[in-house]
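Sample pair:
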Amino acid sequence: MCCEPKSFSNGFGSHSFCILFLFYFYPHFRRDNLVEASRKDLVGANSEQTASLVAALLKKAKGGVLLLSDAASYAEKTDHYGNLALSLVVSGVSLKPHTLA
């Protein structure tokens, strides 16, 4: 689920909005269930390193909520490793949807 409103510009509270969204609509949500990741946490210097970083992050987030900061920036046409990271996260969550909230 994406909770980032389209009207917020990058760095204008969208991250805080997502956290508040989670607490408001999911009262059972606990902060210790949240794994936050930015581009540097997911994108490595090559394909193998990127795949390894994504796998480790998905393992860490198992049973909780994975919040990707500025996920749209990963999908730029010239960013091969960013696209790969985003694809791996989506496929990892799609294959095991019950492991993340």
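The longest strand covers residues 34-37.
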